[in-house]
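Many introductory courses stop at the sequence. We go one step further.
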Amino acid sequence: MGRRRWYTALFLVMGLAGTAFALTDEIWLLVVAALTGTVSTEVVESGPFTSLEQAMLPSAAGVDRDPTRLFGTYNTVATLAGSLGALAAGLTAVLDVAPQRLLLVYAFVAVAGAIVTHGLSPAVEAAPGATRAPLTRSKGVVRRLSGLFALDSFGGGFVTQAFIAYWFTETYGTSPEVLGAAFFLAGILQALSFQIAVRLAGRVGLLNTMVLTHLPSNVLLALIPLAPTEAAAFVLLFSRFALSQMDVPTRQAYVVGVVDAEERTAAAAYTNTARYATRPLGPLVAAPIMQVSLGAPFVVAGVVKSAYDIALYAAFRRRPPHWTE
């Protein structure tokens, strides 16, 4: 179909799915809408959009050029917009409208996104004559990366944003307004961290940036339930957010950098699918753990994600992206 056509189609599906959430309580219809994968609970790396975006973006940098700065800008814009959404969600309590109806914003965003997509350059399409096989030379690398990313995402599933909000509410009675402001601030910290990550990667490399920032953030994550006060817990949370997403633009750039240009769409799709497939398992495992200790998922997530960092470095420390070879 072509990347731009499929990208437009995803926007239209997102609009329909969001409208369903805004206007109906029929559970079967909501399940169908949820399973399209286009109504994401994440600000960055949002479902099938991500695989196309990560394949299209390097074209703006040129063949075998470092696209890390572009990935940093891409994630910064997404996070800032998501932060404004979190802030708006926290203010819904003062509006005289059913919160469910506010999800109609998906329809407006979908139409706008579909229109803007038509303005994308033809350069974002796959190169003419590209192989029809999704993966050939890069199959082994993508398989190993997918397994490691699946482990990281499984750990992240223990501490989704919804769980964090629930934990603060149950532990400290934190109000929705405070949580909305907190996630807004967290988004600002993440946006700043993307720009720092890009500059750090230019000095120490993509893989080193991924591991050296992600590992300390996981230690901070495990310490959150041990905080003596609500303020201390928020300090740990914000410190963690300031570091935890620095691996996002660097990871995205690394994936497209270690595979052939014509295999970038497939590489992004497989590695992202591995992340999305295991992430829902985290809440399933976390549920019985929470019966023992409400804060235990923070500790388990920190341990699992730390194991990912160590394994990733051990497996790929001698595998630089193409533009540094």
